[in-house]
Structure prediction request, 447 residues.
Amino acid sequence: MEKTMSKRTKVRLLAYALAVLTVLLTFSIVGNVRAARMTRQIRIARERALCELDTYISNIHTNLQKGVYANTPTMLGSMASQLRREATGAKSSLAVLPLSEARLDNTYKFLSQIGDFVTALSKKVEQGESISDEEREQLFSLLHFSETLTQDISNMRQQLFDGYLDFESAESTLEQKGEQIASLSQNMEDAEQSLTEYPSLLYDGPFSDHILQRDAALLSDKSEISKEEALKKAAEILGIAENDVTFLSEENDATAAYCFSGGDKTAAVTKKGGYLLYMLSGQFAGESKLEYTDARKYASEFLNNNGFLDMQESYYTVSDGICTINYAYRDGEYICYPDLIKISVSLEDGKILSADCRGYVMNHKERTPAAPALTAAEAQKKVSPLLTVTGTRLAVIPTDSMGERTAYEFHCKNKEGAEFLVYINTVTGYEDDILLLLYSDDGVLTK
Prediction:
């Protein structure tokens, strides 16, 4: 006999169904509201970013208009500071905008170089030199490009608020008015085209064009070796038989190299000259049984065995049972900091876990430093009277533009016992740099 559902049960089931439907509808509505709110917030953030970008680029143009006529270190320095600040803001605004599909290499290059270039000019004038006609011409070129970019960004901002520019649309669509709606990415790429004849800027700064065009100094006059010869070298470096070495890949940048693996290690050998470029190990260090002096001995042996002679240790750190030591090349009286090699040694058994020789390969060369224009005693007078000099030596130090300067390195202490390295240029007598020495149980570093 079939059981029939009572009227009360039907009512309850209907009520439950309505309740569930109500909850689902509520969640759906809340989700849609949240999604709409999020979409609106994202759009507002992007609109604000485009407006700020317009302001930053406009300010850059204004500052460059003043900068081309500035002729004193104070004014040029002020212009450079403002340009760097506006350029940083412009980059931050670009990062918020949906421009992943746009290629904006020259735009970012322009924003990186403007403040840097004017800073280099400021330092040049401060040292008694004049801005050359070529540098003036480059400033006017930057002014021209900033003017074009300002107009393009301002037009985009106006088109956005007139409804003729869209953040997301990758393709043009038709409005009711018959007008086309363009995408922001496409408009930015069009603006990028105005920078196609952007000038090459060569100056003393980290974003100078010549840095990207550098060749490895050590390899410049070396003959290329075969892959088989490089494999033999890798086997020697890794300390294993040639049959146990496997070719991995090639690197074809300024320090072009063959890469090999053997056991749990990887080694890269330069195509020119067959020098060790770097070595990496997957081993972990166990319990520390050795001291820094032991690690230094093993590291020095490794360097000598691989043809890196006359290297002098400078700073080191200890972490997780591994001691990493920085070495610089010693050339007669000069310690050459650009010729840098980093060696990591296991404090468990003295094994070499990694070696990074790229600084040495890029910078090592025969040097003939000019005779110092001032004596060490004369240079020491440039050191702050608040510091006591405890040691002096000659050094080659790197510049921001990957160049080099010679300097007297003064090891100093203040009255609290903190230690500093002060570098006084041997030619100009200017204070090139000051480093703070940091001592701890984990090693010695500079800051």
Notes: The CA atoms of residues 252 and 339 lie 21 Å apart. The longest strand covers residues 334-346. The chain has three domains: 37-212, 219-363, 376-446. The domain at 376-446 is CATH 3.10.450 (Nuclear Transport Factor 2; Chain: A,).
